[in-house]
Amino acid sequence: MKKLISLLLLGGLALAQNQLPAGTSRFVDVPPCHWARAAVEAISRPDPNQRPQASVLLAENAMRQVFEGLKCNDPTWSERFLQNPAPGFGRSEVSLGSFELGGLQTQVSGNQATIRFQLTALLNGTALQRSGAARLFFAEQGWKVDYASLATLNLPVFPR
User: What DSSP element (H or E) covers 133?
Assistant: First the structure.
């Protein structure tokens, strides 16, 4: 019952406040198709003095958000976390139904990181497994995943 009341209050806040423009939420780990996205954006206010830190958790989050955007059929969301995406990115006729990133081994050195991972993805109903290593670069906006390192997975959602 408490959860229901909390959700109703949060929903009321979302309706009572103006929506922020897309992408202005400080909560960059809430994907665009998440049920709480509108409420989170309604209650968050960007702080221009707060800058992201180069941490392992944020690097891993950036990697995860690339896949979350694809799962939500929102490549624009994914591009927020990508560096130099291919021109054909987001135009694939293959859809990502679900994904799981496992075995994350992350190394951060200054403004660069490497994430070794195991990926299980459901593409158009077919389960695929891949192992890979993604390179990430830390910039003013936070971590960006090097698109070329994801293209080596040979998945149609990452055209070369």
Answer: strand 126-139
Look up residue 85 and give its amino acid: P
Its pTM stands at 0.71
**Is residue 108 in some structural domain?**
yes
Strand duo 96-109 + 142-146: pairing: unpaired
The CA-atom distances, in angstroms, between 57 and each of 29, 108, 115, 143 are 11, 10, 11, 10
**Same domain (yes/no): 32, 72:** no
Count of structural domains within the chain: 2
Q: What is the pLDDT along the chain (160 residues), one digit of tens a residue?
A: 655 555 555 555 454 444 444 444 556 677 888 877 766 676 565 566 665 567 899 999 999 999 999 999 999 999 999 999 999 999 989 999 999 999 999 999 999 999 999 999 999 999 999 999 999 999 888 999 999 999 999 999 999 8
Q: Closest by alpha carbon to 67, among 38, 36, 102?
A: 102
